[in-house]
Amino acid sequence: MVFSTIIVTSALKGAISLMGTGLWLVPLLIAGLSYYHYDQLDPESRPIDRYPLYSNYDFIVVGGGSAGAVVASRLSEIPDWNVLLLEAGPDENEITDVPSLAAYLQLTKLDWKYKTEPTGKACLAMKGGRCNWPRGKVLGGSSVLNYMLYVRGNRYDYDHWESLGNSGWGYKQVLYYFKKSEDNRNPYLQKSPYHATNGYLTVQESPWKTPLVVAFIQAGVEMGYENRDINGERQTGFMISQGTIRRGNRCSTAKAFLRPVRLRRNIHTAINSHVTKIIIDPLTMKAIGVEFVRDGRKQMVRARKEVILSAGAINSPQILMLSGIGPKEHLRHIGIPVIEDLRVGDNLQDDVGMGGLAFLIDKPVVIVQDRFQSAPMTMHYVVNGRGPMTALGGVEGYAFVNTKYANYSIDYPDLQFHMAPASINSDAGVQVRKIFGLTDEVYNTVYRPITNKDAWTLIPVLLRPKSRGTIRLKNSNPFHSPLINANYFSDPMDIAVLVEGVKIAIKISEAKVFKQFGSRIHRIKLPGCKHFKFGSDAYWECHIRHISETIYHPVGTAKMGPPTDPTAVVDPRLRVYGITGLRVIDASIMPTISSGNTNAPVIMIGEKGADLIKQDWLRSSSGNNHESVY
Q: Which residues bind FAD (predicted)?
């Protein structure tokens, strides 16, 4: 009991700081978790924050997120190799474990709190015309902040990568790595050749569902789409969401890949360690170590074999450019000596969607904050791991459909829907409006009139945007956020596909099965779109440009490609061109974005990248000089 009291007290302090908004159920939640799951809260079960560090390691992995945690864990399987994992953020906490609280993790100390640059073409309903781009600054990275949706993408995505000259990245090869990670606990998928049950990463449905998601699946069938495993043989269809959760709790990559290996002697983890630069020997053009700041002190550690950048599609290009690897014109403008001229920071892609589409209903079957904040609900979650708090960030179902622009001759849908039994109005403006960054005018005009009323939403998501953006340095200060130009809708086809998506969403909402709920679209116009007829293509385009919603999938900023591709940053073995001993293994390397949520593909990239390293190095022996200097 003394141990539990200590855990409750420390966790409560962190939770109050984290939540900011002061959810009254937080003390009850943490106390319950501590009492009923004290074994999970035992600090011995968490990755050890290592002091002191060795001066040299065989491999240094920068970033402990969706890919980096996988890479570090897998490399430590070789007992003769010493691995250091550097993470800029802290460890997870009790609140991050709760699936339904995903939105409350944004804009906290666990989030890099990035924003896009204003372009005048998107994010017009957001303050300053800038979209929030949350990224995980925590061990586990964005797998700690995300909505946990497990979507692999389409087989044609990976066959396309291979056709671009990336040997070994076709669908048949990457399927092996998806399955290597997976511990799928859905009984109906146990015998599927597309799934596995022996991996570190648990995948299952939320144990709690509303009647609306059942109606959503039935509506899809009514429209001619099958209810299917979208991670299986075919992608087109409707499905109840699969998520990276385990017994009702979030299963981040830190929990899946790092906790089981925390006692291995050859893996060291250093949290709150902000990497500022890769050290490159100018004579040999080899990455020999990294500089980082920990506890306010600049430190350096050397890599005998390789430095692996797994800092994500924003931070990896930032670190490369700070190290002199990037577009020479830009680096010279910033005042950074150019070591290697590569198109780092180009090719930025994101699955942009349309937020704010609300359908009102007459039955109390959805998530409304005033209804669900109750002690019994909280205790049901902490005792049984069930109830509304297990919802995957609120996303209960997804669908992959074809607009009129899709190629119907193959299974390659161009649009995804996220279905949620809630809307922007459902929390009375406490948090959702903040994570969108909506202006007061937009929220007060459109959503405040339906505060706490029962509503649900469909989010149309563009699967393969044609628009490309950039990541650039603001200056040479490694602690300043980079400039993110998402460049949404620079290609008009992206808007055209999403407009068709809105019209399909409305057809879904008008299916016979939704009549029982009295479902109807919320018709108050956005202030900036009043001059258009509600429901017209022009109105929907205006709405899309105003409430442009990132689906948190930035990729592509250190593009993988063959030596003949002048825009490539890494080769098909993920080695940075022109620099030995340096790889990028994360979402940055995607030449084109995968069709769907990107967390599962990034974990796959981590798995395959670790195997590539093993293949390249196991032919030589490993050194064992472990002298400590800190």
A: 138, 275
| Mean pLDDT (the chain, rounded) | 91
Closest CA relative to residue 34, chosen from 93, 77, 80, 75:
93
CA 596 to centroid of chain Cα atoms:
11
Contact by Cβ (8 Å): 418, 395: yes
Q: Are residues 566 and 598 in the same domain?
A: yes
pTM above 0.70, yes or no: yes
Candidates 165, 147, 127; CA nearest to 351 is 147
Short-list 580, 629, 627, 582, CA closest to 609: 582
Asked whether the CA dihedral 430, 432, 434, 440 is positive or negative, the reply is negative
Decide if 159 is inside a domain. yes
Domain end, chosen from 550, 577, 595, is at 550
Q: How many domains does the chain divide into?
A: 3
Structure tokens at 113: 């709190």
Longest CA–CA span in the chain (Å) reads: 72
Structural domain including 13 reads 4-40
Same domain, 464 and 420: yes
**Alpha helix stretches (DSSP H) within 335-386:** 369-372, 375-384
Backbone angles phi, psi at 247, to 5 degrees: 55, 40
Query: Is 628 inside a domain boundary?
Result: no
**Which tokens sit at 251?**
């299963």
Strands 520-521 and 358-360: antiparallel
Please report where in the chains the tokens 């996303």 appear, as a residue. Answer: 395
Q: Note whether 477 and 516 are same-domain residues.
A: yes
Tell which residue, 25, 138, 82, 55, has the closest CA to residue 369.
25
Task: Indicate if 274 and 181 belong to the same structural domain.
Answer: yes
On whether both 226 and 362 belong to a single domain, the answer is yes
Asked if 301 and 290 touch (Cβ cutoff 8 Å), the reply is: yes
Task: Mark whether 15 and 115 lie in a shared domain.
Answer: no
Catalytic residue numbers read 553
Question: Is residue 626, in this structure, part of any structural domain at all?
Answer: no
- Is 430 a known ligand-binding residue? no
- The answer to whether the CB of 142 falls within 8 A of the CB of 136 is yes
pLDDT tens column, 490-548: 999 999 999 999 999 999 999 999 999 999 999 999 999 999 999 999 999 999 999 99
| Residue 447 DSSP label | I
